[in-house]
Each structure stands twice: as structure tokens, then as C-alpha cells.
Amino acid sequence: MSAKRIGITLGDQAGIGPEIVDAALKAGEWPADVQFEIIGKRIQATPGEPTWETAKAALEALEEGASKLQNGEIDAIVTAPVAKEGLHTVGFEFPGQTEFFADRLGTENYAMCLAGEHLTVALVTIHVSLAEVPQLLTEREIIRVGKLLEEFCLRKGVEQPRIAVCGLNPHAGENGAFGLEDLEIVTPAIKKLNEGHKVPVFTGPHSADTIFRPAANGEYDAVLCMYHDQGLIPLKLLDFDTGVNTTLGLPRPRTSPDHGTAFQIAGQGVASHSSMLHAIKLAVELA
């Protein structure tokens, strides 16, 4: 069996990326058939002081990593946190790393998913304003992302996934009292997602203010969320130290920790490497 080759970027090196990567690699007990490669050059950076140079180095590492992933030089990639504001000053034209890797790997059918110790969530809409969500939410998109989430659960070894689908509106619309999207878009999508399954995989629409408690207690394997904060607030509340961001639908795995650059604590020796450790472990598992 050939070795699994895992590439790791350092993110914006004025942040905590370099220190949590180093700590996670030292902390993990890695299989003998796994090889790690740090992608991008280590540069001189002052902790907590991002510059044009640190942003440029971060973007160059992303480009190199995406190229290696696409060409099969690595089997998976783990990306350390970047500062989007800085990246935009050096030509980064994407809302986030999720969209960047989908573009560079030529993938149109992709989704953002975060998995932690207690919760796994996938997002139907990602980096858009809340005002745009109702217009972007379609039956087709819910079905598309739902299928990617089901595939992820199966790949993780869940033989019969149980996926809860959140409603868009408070109380999942209260039968039309608080909007019609849950009746006219979400419910028909759930019905179509379950077609062909002897046992329903998807249930809902569930009220988002209650569904995460049973999900965290193990009654569901994943939750399909309609927008960014609907899924990420409970995920980061419960699983900040174990949460991993992974891009569903790519031909090869891409993972990252569920937090940002944390410039304010960079270089102080207090940053937790836990999420990065879990991101590397998931990349190894999926590779």
C-alpha cells in the first residue's frame, strides 16, 4: 500500500497557524504509512502583525497546495487559518477557502461542512448576507447539499445516516405563519431526498432552536442547515476545540480547523492546537 501524502499550509504566518501546525504534528500518533509535507515557504513574520507579505505567502501556499492536490502529488490538504481581508489585498477573489478550492479543482458540486465531537453540520448557503438567503434557497440546492452530506456520513462509516434538516424560519415556519419557504421549498426537498430509501434518511424541517440538542446527544448523525450561522453557532459553541471544516464534493479531501488566525494571541504560546490536530486526523482518515 502506498503512503498517504498529506499537505499542510501554514496560513497567515502572523497568526497562530505555524505554531498550531507544529504542535499538532508533534502531538499526534500517526500511522507509519502517512507522510506530511509543509506547503509554502516559512517567512519572517511578527506575531500579531499581518502584512502584505504574510498575506501573499498565504495565497502562494494555497495556490501551490491546490495544484498539488489537483495533480495527485498529495492525497489530502489541511489549510491553516488565513485572513480574508489580507488575502483580498493580494488578489484573492473568493469569499473563502471553500470556494477557492472548488474553483481550482474544477468542482461545481461542493458544500461546506463542519464536523466535531458532538455535531456535524452542512450548509446549503455559505458566505452570503442573511438578506440573500431566502432568494438563494431552492429545492435543488437543498437536495444537492443533502446528498453530499449523506455521502460524507457514509464515508465516515455511518451505515444508515440519520440527517435532520433545519427549517429556514423560526419554528420551521409554524405551518406558514412565519414564511412559506419551509412548506414550499424545504419540505418537498426532504421528500425527494428520501426517494429510493427504504428507511428515511432525512427528517424535518425541524425548528432550528431545538434540533441541535438531540443531534448533540447522538439522535442524529448530521444536521443540514439553511445558512451559515444557523449551523456554525451551535457547532462552535459545542465543538470549538474539535471542530473541523471540510469541503464536500472535492475529488480529494481538504480540511481546516474551525477557527481563525487569532492574531491577538499569536506567538504567546497559549493557542490551542486541538482543532488543527482533528483537522489533520480527518484528512488522514479520508485520504
UniProtKB/TrEMBL annotation:
It comes from the Bacteria. Keywords: Metal-binding, NAD, Oxidoreductase. The keyword Lyase does not apply. The keyword Glycoprotein does not apply. GO terms for molecular function: metal ion binding; NAD binding; oxidoreductase activity. It holds the Pfam family PdxA. NCBIfam families: pdxA. This is 4-hydroxythreonine-4-phosphate dehydrogenase.
